[in-house]
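Please fill in the sequence for the structure shown.

STRUCTURE ENCODING:
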């Protein structure tokens, strides 16, 4: 399927669609959330498959490594740590491919390009507001890259020592040595794949843990908000009850005052009535 797509890209699309994508990329960098991103990555893979010269492959890999670092930086600016983590995985795979090309390519140039990418990645650690998880992912990528460089250098030293011993002894069969090197190369490749799988598993577990922690923190914040809401509601109800009690007490006081006023008014009326009766009695006696 990939070969069929590659044929389309190399054929018709290379004359029409691809130049436009490349032009857009120069004017406005294609980021992982771009609709053209998958096409650009497919072009990278196809170009690498079609490139047989080891030096040219090393150059392509170096360019891809630089792109991944820029994309990591863009993802971190957008606070998209999940995409940044995936891009760092892609970056590590590119570096491993570059290391494997040291056997046939220009060693000093390749190592120089790797160190250049290392510097760009290191500068990301100096960014402000960089989360701990993103910092750990970058540091892990740098550590793995350093391990790859060290391992590649050790392997090269072993091969050089092996060549020296072969030249001094001149007794080993060349075919057997070649078979052994191929076997060792296969073992190293298997080890790298296993290490990569382990790192991926660790990152997935760490990601799951961070997700669970965020979920728990969210639940705690929700619980706190509900408790605060309940407290505020209780306070409002208590204040409402107090105001109601105050109004009832005020109404009772007003009623008592009104009752007292009415009582006084009745007593005054009765006194006036008694006075009138007394006057009438005096007039009748006269």
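FILLED IN BY: designer on duty
SEQUENCE:
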């Amino acid at each position: 399927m990939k070969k069929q797509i590659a044929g389309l890209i190399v054929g018709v699309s290379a004359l029409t669609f691809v130049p436009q994508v490349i032009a857009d990329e120069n004017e406005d960098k294609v980021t992982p959330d771009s609709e053209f991103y998958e096409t650009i990555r497919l072009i990278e893979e196809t170009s690498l498959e079609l490139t047989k010269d080891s030096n040219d492959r090393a150059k392509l890999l170096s360019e891809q490594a630089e792109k991944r670092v820029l994309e990591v930086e863009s993802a971190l600016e957008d606070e998209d740590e999940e995409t940044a983590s995936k891009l760092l995985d892609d970056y590590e795979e590119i570096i491993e491919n570059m290391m494997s090309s040291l056997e046939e390519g220009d060693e000093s140039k390749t190592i120089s390009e790797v160190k250049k990418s290392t510097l760009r990645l290191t500068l990301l650690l100096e960014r402000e507001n960089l989360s701990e998880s993103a910092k750990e992912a970058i540091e892990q990528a740098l550590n793995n890259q350093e391990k790859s460089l060290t391992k590649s250098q050790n392997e090269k030293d072993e091969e050089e020592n092996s060549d020296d011993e072969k030249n001094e002894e001149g007794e080993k069969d060349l075919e057997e040595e070649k078979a052994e090197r191929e076997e060792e190369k296969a073992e190293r490749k298997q080890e790298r794949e296993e290490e990569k799988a382990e790192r991926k598993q660790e990152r997935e577990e760490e990601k799951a843990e961070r997700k669970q922690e965020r979920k728990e923190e969210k639940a705690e914040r929700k619980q706190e908000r509900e408790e605060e809401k309940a407290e505020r509601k209780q306070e409002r109800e208590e204040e409402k009850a107090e105001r109601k009690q105050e109004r009832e007490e005020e109404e009772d006081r007003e009623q008592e005052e009104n009752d007292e006023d009415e009582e006084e008014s009745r007593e005054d009326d009765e006194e006036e009535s008694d006075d009138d009766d007394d006057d009438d009695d005096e007039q009748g006696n006269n």
